[in-house]
Amino acid sequence: MRHTVVEKSRRRLLILTISMVLMSVLSGTLFMVHQWQSLQQYNDMRQKAEHAMVQGNFKQAIGLLSRCLVYWPENPQLLSDFTQAQMLVTDQAQRYIELTIDVLLNSASVNPQHDQEARLLADMYRALDDQTQAINIATRILKEQPKNLQLLKYRTFARACMGQYEKAIADVDQCLVLKPDWHELYLLRLYFMKQLDMPAEPVFQTVASWQKSLNHVGWYQALMGVICRQFGMDQQALNWFVDAQDQTQNDGRLLSLLVGQFDAMGEYVRADQLLNQSDPKLDTMLLYQKAWRAWQNQQDEVLGNLPEMAVPQVLALQVMSLRRTKQVSQIQAKLSRFKLLPQSRTTVIWEQLLGMVVAQPQASPIQIIELAQQVRRESRMPGLANVILAQQWEKLGEQSCALDTWKRLAHEAPAWELPHLQQARIMLAMGHSLAGAASARQAIKCNPKSITAAVLLIEALTQVPQAHARETAIALFDEISPKLLGDTQIRLACRVFETTKANEQINEALKQKVHWNQQTWIELAKVSLARGGNWHLGCLSEYKKRYGVDPQWLRLSALSLGASGELAAGRRLIESQISRLTQRKSKPSASWLIAQAQFLANLQAPLPALQAYEHLLKQYPQNLAVAQAVLDAPSRVQQLALQQQAVDQLRRLTGD
After folding, report:
1. Among residues of the chain, what percentage have pLDDT more than 90?
2. Each residue of 509-531: pLDDT tens digit?
């Protein structure tokens, strides 16, 4: 019996032991299978994320990579890819910056010895405009790694953004101790000293003390030139820059600096000569300057032959050059080269912007403006983006925004005639004749042979009330008149000459059955009505014979009747025309009713004009021209409610 009990116990123990072993083996097997499945899942997500990155689907890549980080939070390559995907997303709402910061903070705690996370965190905080946190992160790592140049640079810019220029100078000096041949840092220090309004003597002493550490005669001379310019010593600055030019020794960055300084001083010929003699492969900024100048001067062949050197701005200029020269078949091939460039946020946004401008004719100005503004924020070389931005603002009728952008371009590219011309046109359209004249003169300085600039200057001077301004306009008109086309010549003549002489010239031309373009007849009639001339009668008669009755003719004809005291006849003319249109159609087009409202506003009939504008907004809720016409109406017929209604309609139609 006893043996039986013992034997049973032994058998039970053996069975229990075998069961535990089997369970352990099974658990280990299940764990290994789970780990294998997790690894397979991770590898699968990693491959999908890489594919999404290649395809440019950065939002999808972010979702996949964030799940991968759950498995491998300490993987530096994974972290780098995740952050790169975040930086490449162009839609600010999709960038998940807060999520990225959480991931980076977690990784930094896992890998306290790495500084990559700190650099990325500083970038993210600067993107959020949280300079304090960017400074704190950089300072924390710099305590352990005081020779980390990258983080010192981040802290320098963050402190400058907060106006802490003295601390920023201290960081720059620390960088220069570590890397005395980093010449751009000397320029940065000069800028900070300027922001502190330091007197000339200590600034010159500081620059003089750099001569030995610079170990480069050309850079020392260039910095002396920069500081002379800062204190208004232009001739001394020019002398220093000329001396530095002889010491460039194939230094691309110094050449680039000198080109910019010569441009800023109005020494455009010298800047051009320096650019033409330089090798663009020496420096990416030098290459960009050469491409940008070639694009401005419409030297499309020169621009097309320049090396891209992984500079998206140069590739963008080449794409727009192909568009300008209507080489449509080559545009797509050139656009596809963006995929071959090192992927960065700047490259991605440039590709999207150009794709929309050249390949999507249905894209709205608001969409293009949003991308162009992103490019301007991200890029160190935003010239072309500003051109696109200014043009799109003008399309929307946003003259003030367009003017601000053209001013920025004039500052960025002072040797270029176009921004000054556009400023002059907008200023004249807004009634600022003196400012328009100043911009036209600047355009002439850029291109002394510019007939367009001369014409704009004449138009501006004729609007200035002082007698000497008109005398200058007449003298300039006499000088360029032989070079003008017939339409331009007569349109200027009606502004420049006294009303009696203008009457004689234009009426004589009318007798000779001249062939002016459609808009010239309208412009001549407008000037005649504004100046109290009599040639508008002949112009409107000829216009009606050639082009029939349209809203432009109708409004000016009604104004002509009103100017001669026949206000009722003018109103009857418009009403009868609209009545005829109503009989033929369900309702007249908006342009006819706009002409009616403008006529009433011009003849100081505020109540009827107000009613006409209210009717327009009610009848044409989807018409952009109607909303703009209401906003352009004279203040005497504006009411706050009407104005707000027009603004709401404009925002609804444009998305702004």
Report:
1. 17
2. 888 777 888 888 888 888 888 88
The closest of 486, 433, 423, 483 to 458, measured between CA atoms, is 433
* Residue 276 to residue 255: CA distance in whole angstroms: 11
Identify the DSSP state of 548. -
CA distance 646 to 631: 7
Confirm if 324 and 300 have CB atoms less than 8 A apart: yes
* Spatial CA neighbour of 555 closest among 603, 596, 615, 610: 596
List Cβ neighbours of 131 (8 Å cut-off, separation of 6 or more).
125, 158, 159, 161, 162
Q: What secondary structure does DSSP assign to 369-409, as a single string?
A: HHHHHHHHHH-S--HHHHHHHHHHHHHTT-HHHHHHHHHHH
Q: How far apart are CA 126 and CA 151, in angstroms?
A: 13
In this prediction the pTM is 0.71
Task: Give dist(CA 521, CA 542) in Å, integer.
Answer: 8
Q: What's the token pair of residue 206?
A: 């500081």
CA neighbor of 395 nearest in space, from 625, 645, 646: 625
pLDDT band at 625 (very low <50, low <70, confident <90, very high): confident
Q: Identify whether the C-beta of residue 477 lies closer than 8 Å to the C-beta of residue 496.
A: yes
Tell me if 323 sits within 8 A of 343, measured CB to CB: no
CB 347 within 8 A of CB 375: no
Note the pLDDT tens digit of each residue in 350-360. 988 998 898 78
Distance CA 389, CA 404 (A): 10
**Of 364-373, 414-423, 503-512, 517-526, the least confident:** 503-512
User: Cα–Cα distance between 163 and 415 in angstroms, integer?
Assistant: 31
CB 263 within 8 A of CB 414: yes
**Spatial distance between the Cα atoms of 196 and 164, rounded to a whole number of angstroms:** 10
Residue type, 353: L
Buried residues in 148-176 as b, exposed as e (16+ CB within 10 A): beebbbbbbbbbbeeebbebbbebbebbb
**Phi, psi for 90 (deg, rounded to 5):** -90, -25
CA 136 to chain centre: 32
